[in-house]
Amino acid sequence: MSMKGKFRNFFGIDEDEYEIVEEEVEQDDYTPPTRSGRKDDKGNVVSLSSVQKNNKMVLCEPRSYDEVQDIADHIVNRRSVVINLQRVDTLQARQIIDFMSGTVYAVSGQIKKLGSQTFLCTPDSIEISGNITEIMEEIDPEQRW
After folding, report:
1. Which of 14, 73, 125, 126 is most buried, judging by how many CB atoms fall within 10 Å of its CB?
2. Which residues contact 16 (CB under 8 A, 6 or more apart)?
3. C-alpha to C-alpha distance for 116 and 118, rounded to whole angstroms
4. Positive or negative CA dihedral for 31, 33, 34, 36?
5. How far apart, in Å, are the Cα atoms of 3 and each of 10, 11, 17?
6. pLDDT (tens digit per residue) in 77-121
7. Which residues contact 107 (CB under 8 A, 6 or more apart)?
8. Residue 133 gets which letter from DSSP?
9. Of 70-74, 105-109, 117-121, 127-131, which gets the smallest average pLDDT?
10. Rounded to an integer, what distance in angstroms lies between the CA atom of residue 80 and that of residue 60?
């Protein structure tokens, strides 16, 4: 028994009482309505993934290398991070910058030196332009990196 026959029996419909009309709809003729509800409206379609939410800037001042994973998580979550390394000794500061460089590279971002111990790390959705110069003679050679 066909599906139509089962429905007829379930609802108690006799074929003689009602006429069953079937229409075929061709797929090529269908045009989905736009926001305004008109089929002829040619509005632009924007992917939801291309619409950016509020961009955030995170300021970090780590005191040890142990905090580097938390900083890297911000970059992975597409947030810009300014890192101030004044409270960290030189060896740990270099390790933090090495780790952050790898993280920024993994997300196709950028890292820029803003000052003697300040860095800006951005994800690929944010472009850095311009340079900040500093006088290298005033910086102790031990702290230069």
Report:
1. 126
2. none
3. 6
4. positive
5. 11, 12, 19
6. 989 999 999 999 999 999 999 999 999 999 999 999 988 899 999
7. 75, 76, 78, 123, 124
8. -
9. 127-131
10. 11
